[in-house]
Write a structure and sequence with these properties.
Strand order of the largest sheet: 3-2-1-4-9-6-10
Radius of gyration: 22 Å
Keywords: Glycoprotein, Glycosyltransferase, Membrane, Signal, Signal-anchor, Transferase, Transmembrane, Transmembrane helix
Pfam family, one: Glyco_transf_8
Protein name: Hexosyltransferase
CATH class: Alpha Beta
CATH architecture: Alpha-Beta Complex
Oligomer: single chain
CATH topology: Spore Coat Polysaccharide Biosynthesis Protein SpsA, Chain A
Number of helices: 13
Subcellular location: Endomembrane system
Structural class: alpha/beta
Organism: Salvia divinorum
Shape: globular
Number of strands: 11
Strand content: 5-15%
Largest sheet: 7 strands, mixed
Distance between the termini: 48 Å
Order of helices and strands: HHEHEHEHHEEHEEHEEHHHEEHH
Helix content: 25-40%
CATH superfamily: Spore Coat Polysaccharide Biosynthesis Protein SpsA, Chain A
Bound molecules: 2-acetamido-2-deoxy-beta-D-glucopyranose
Length: 349
């Protein structure tokens, strides 16, 4: 009797050793501080009460923000959320819509967001990343090939149909201005999305000679004046997106890319192919991008001239990585105040 008890205990111990997950250990131990509650100012419009037992709720005075959520960028996402709330005059009127890879531990992400922002209105939508994974062709930076990076293509399908307008934000940015101003960008002339345009960038260089030398493909931009835009900050009319079937159009370009290489970078070029030249403009202050440095040497970048409402660490380097490594770029100091990560020192005290 006794030896069998000892034996089974031993076996259970062995089983535990083998099934204890060792991957993602560094992500799982991240602990974040709780943000304070943010209150509406008196001039804020009152939202109509949400109908009971319904997650499908949209109010013209609500600001709906979409972001992706994953373990690797969680620290950035939490800083971005804090920055949105802190600079908003009506923070209680903001609802967040997070897209998380369905394979990831989304209950952990939900618990982490709830712990840091107990008052936040948010939903988490699972994204079947295998759907996008099969469409991704390898690009110069492995991070761009992460399927969740393509979730922005599918927002109109992932979010409930009652959500008709969304502000999409990347996870490596902070706002230093009221998101209501960005959300109020007029989408004139039937524009589906609004984003800052950069017409001085060499648009030709985003597509391969294969694309430009193909007679029918090169006609894609005929009758348009296409300019580069960054897809990290966008205001999207989801109703027009759904009506126009733009998810299908983007997927078709991704399928073509699998067969013949028509562009280099990851998720951006299909957006350019479908929308460039037809988007509503947004002031450049709303996407001071490139602060992550260049893709090859990781050099520090400076701000573009002009006012700043949003700082975006697009590019290879991320401020939290450089701060942890004690090798920050000067502008990383502007990200640090939004970092809610508990340092080991704070945990002890
Ligand atoms: C733009 O890029 C293309 C392809 O990379 C290049 O051939 C062309 O010379 C560039 N044009 C300018 C004005 O730099």
């Amino acid at each position: 009797m006794l030896p069998s008890v000892i034996l089974s205990t031993f076996l259970i111990a062995i089983i535990f050793i083998f099934i204890t997950p060792t991957t993602n250990a560094s992500a799982a131990v991240l602990r974040f501080r709780e943000a304070p509650k943010f209150y509406n100012s008196e001039s804020c419009p009152t939202l109509s009460p949400a109908p009971a037992a319904s997650t499908c709720y949209d109010d013209a005075n609500a600001i709906n923000v979409a972001m992706t959520l994953d373990a690797a960028y969680l620290r950035g996402s939490i800083a971005a959320i804090l920055s949105v709330l802190q600079h908003s005059s009506c923070p209680e009127n903001i609802a967040f819509h997070f897209v998380a890879a369905s394979s990831a531990a989304s209950h952990h992400l939900r618990a982490t967001i709830s712990a840091s922002f107990p008052y936040l209105q948010f939903q988490i939508y699972p994204f079947d990343d295998s759907a996008a994974a099969g469409l991704i062709s390898t690009s110069i930076r492995a991070a761009l090939d992460c399927p969740l990076n393509y979730a922005r293509n599918y927002l109109a399908d992932l979010l409930p149909s009652c959500i008709t307008k969304i502000v999409y934000l990347d996870s490596d940015l902070v706002l230093v201005d009221d998101i209501a101003k960005l959300a109020a960008t007029p989408l004139l002339n039937g524009a589906v999305l609004a984003a800052p345009e950069y017409c001085n960038a060499n648009f030709t260089s985003y597509f391969t000679p294969t694309f430009w030398s193909n007679p029918s493909l090169s006609l894609t931009f005929a009758n348009r004046r296409p300019c580069y835009f960054n897809t990290g900050v966008m205001v999207i009319d989801l109703r027009r997106w759904r009506d126009g079937g733009y998810t299908t159009q983007i997927v078709e370009w991704m399928e073509l890319q699998k067969r013949m290489r028509i562009y280099e970078l990851g998720s951006l070029p299909p957006f350019l192919l479908v929308f460039a030249g037809n988007i509503a403009p947004v002031d450049h202050r709303w996407n001071q991008h490139g602060l992550g440095g260049d893709n090859f040497r990781g050099l520090c970048r400076d701000l573009h001239p002009g006012p700043v409402s949003l700082l975006h660490w697009s590019g290879k380097g991320k401020p939290w990585v450089r701060l942890d490594a004690n090798r920050p770029c000067p502008l990383d100091a502007l990200w640090a105040p939004y970092d809610l990560l508990r340092t080991p020192y704070i945990l002890e005290s």
